[in-house]
Amino acid sequence: MDFFHCISLLEAQDMIVKELTGSVVALEQVPLVDALGRVAAEDVVSAENLPPFSRSTVDGFAVRSADTFGASEAAPSLFTVVGEVLMGKSTGIELAPGQAAAIPTGGMLPVGADAVVMLEYAEQPDPHSLLIAKMIAPRENVIVSGEDIAFGSILLHRGQIITPAHIGVLAASGVTHVPVRQPVKVAIISTGDELVDIDMPVKAGQIRDVNSYALGALFTKWGCRVSPMGIVRDSYEKFYCALLEAVKTCQMVVISGGSSVGARDFTVKAIDGLGAPGVLFHGIAIKPGKPTIFGMVDRTPIFGLPGHPVAAMTVSEQLVKPAVRLLSGQKEIFARRSVPARLTRNVASSPGRDDFVGVRLNRQADGGYQAAPIFGKSGLIRLMAESDGIMHIPSDKSGVYEGETVEILLLNDADEGGRPE
Amino acid sequence: MDFFHCISLLEAQDMIVKELTGSVVALEQVPLVDALGRVAAEDVVSAENLPPFSRSTVDGFAVRSADTFGASEAAPSLFTVVGEVLMGKSTGIELAPGQAAAIPTGGMLPVGADAVVMLEYAEQPDPHSLLIAKMIAPRENVIVSGEDIAFGSILLHRGQIITPAHIGVLAASGVTHVPVRQPVKVAIISTGDELVDIDMPVKAGQIRDVNSYALGALFTKWGCRVSPMGIVRDSYEKFYCALLEAVKTCQMVVISGGSSVGARDFTVKAIDGLGAPGVLFHGIAIKPGKPTIFGMVDRTPIFGLPGHPVAAMTVSEQLVKPAVRLLSGQKEIFARRSVPARLTRNVASSPGRDDFVGVRLNRQADGGYQAAPIFGKSGLIRLMAESDGIMHIPSDKSGVYEGETVEILLLNDADEGGRPE
């Protein structure tokens, strides 16, 4: 299988978008405390003004701002203090001209008042009098009703992943339940006669099933519910039955391929056998990850990933992740956080192929990042855990050079254990 | 409370480090599938070589590399094919000089072989013969036993947050259970006479309890187990009892403060009343977040955060997050993923105070980021959800200028709903 007989990464991504657009998993309502990290299924709109009443943003005195017109150190305005606003209480106070009321931060503005003067600028010759020695603008130190969140404004957009800040905005607006997408249910089938599960003794010639665990963790991180179907060995019939079961019970199927040509042939044959349209591409011009298979059985996408864990994870980031985002109704399908970085050495590549190379990122004195490519024979598992990010060398380049500024896709947020600074 | 009577952010962080160093929550063993996102409690060391046997990285023929010495198009080396290596099987084959064996990708190298020639470079005049027209180096297309992960090497370092790649490395090495730190149990107490829970009707002068939800989500994202203790109102005695209960049952307590001076006085009095050393600082020179309280009751840290959600979340990122990381035994206490960005407009600041301003990030044609500050009256909740990152203006600056390159702390990884590109 020559690279020039493979489809390009962009073609593969376009095909996945075309096949999965419109296929979105069902909606469910969850309590606000369970909404973190979920995908909003609908726009959530504010049913009220926030704040519901005009509030003070400081400790001070509520006044009618017009009463301070012309006030100065030489000629302060004089007010009569007619009462005190208490937190959490509706105030019965109504200010007439020349009147003021004490008010705490967050207190509800009395009727008639339109501004608050801070304690620092108010002098009280006696408890019932107040001198203000500067002019106060209308709305000064006040948040008016609806100024933060207006009735009818959108609190959360369909397709957004819900963050702690969204949770705060929703709580502030009294939203107790949130419409979210159900987690995408993904089956993982491992194939390969050489594989054994991680808790079994390894005999000569055998290796452990890494991909069920590594891919399972990756898909879990992306919000999927993972259904591990174990290792399928020995016969085409057993593999076909496992795949049939997976297609029936899940919304996406990922086959972690045996490394042999025979195992790949099994996968193609079974996908085509299960239903139309069957296999849509087999082989993409990327490294690592060339022997990747993608097909659809009715509306269910099926990926046949390479057996090498590094290749399987690279292809997952490039193809499976966009598919998960499409199925869960996310807006940003291909967005990845990336940073520009200066390369520490030349890296050769082949035109006509998209290359992905793990790098370590180091912060430089000038604030920029430096990217040091991590090399090793294809399939070294250790390399995965040593990378802070991935350098993408596009298919029109024959390499990138030391000192060149390249774009690095970040693998792990600092919160998740990256190695920043 | 003047900014110059507050301690600095750095002093506050140093004090937290000093108080919490050595206080780490207990260890537990979890199955590998449950280890994602947890903090490694011990170094995990490989008990074997990976791969356990020398493997081929291509489909081809295993040979003794010395037998190809001098081979060329003009004078190819001739081999006798003595058998075929099967996947997942120990091979009984032993190569004598001049002999070769067919081998699949991942197959176990026969005794005597030290390299593999790819199918493309091998010609078979008949099934039992093989011509190789180039010289093959020792170890070519072979991963030798232990080359990926050597016996005794560290798979996972104490204090690392476990990523999908770590899960892969652990699976490959047969690690079925992982020693991790228990989640830090954090109590959240909301105080403030004006607060009502989000599912209750809001009367005049009242506002909803945002912080229990927003802070709960933030701490959950950081791996904590959140214990919401609800809204405590009305009396000092009730507040004292709630705090006592929180200190008894949790490893950290966060009080989301009422905005009034009275509520802050309650907090200080209760922390001091519960035990030594009591309140350690009250007021830090940052904006937003000045009226922050920190104390210790025996070995339990207690934070009194400002009532404004934006201030509470800003202080949480700067002080509570490092505390969570210390308690859970993480290595990187202050690391945050940040990017340099060009500022779109001037932002004034006060020397002697660390300012934090929300920004939107936009990707520029040259690959760099542009940061547009989001302004609004202090305490606008909506601003939280509109920020992609936070600009930190250090205390020695009186402002930052349009066009200046500033450092932006990223709030949300693209995976979590940021707005990259």
From TrEMBL, chains A, B:
Cofactor(s) annotated in UniProt: Mg(2+)
Record GO terms (molecular function): metal ion binding; molybdopterin molybdotransferase activity
EC annotation from Swiss-Prot or TrEMBL: 2.10.1.1
Top-tier EC class: transferase
Any matching Pfam family: MoeA_N
Sequence ranges assigned to domain MoaB/Mog in this UniProt record: 187-326
The family this protein is said to belong to: Belongs to the MoeA family.
One GO cellular component, as annotated: cytosol
Keywords linked to the UniProt accession: Magnesium, Metal-binding, Molybdenum, Molybdenum cofactor biosynthesis, Transferase
Pathway where it operates: Cofactor biosynthesis; molybdopterin biosynthesis
InterPro entries: MoaB/Mog-like_dom_sf (IPR036425), MoaB/Mog_dom (IPR001453), MoCF_biosynth_CS (IPR008284), MoeA-like (IPR038987), MoeA_C_domain_IV (IPR005111), MoeA_C_domain_IV_sf (IPR036688), MoeA_linker/N (IPR005110), MoeA_linker/N_sf (IPR036135)
Reaction(s) the record says it catalyses: adenylyl-molybdopterin + molybdate = Mo-molybdopterin + AMP + H(+)
Name of the protein in question: Molybdopterin molybdenumtransferase
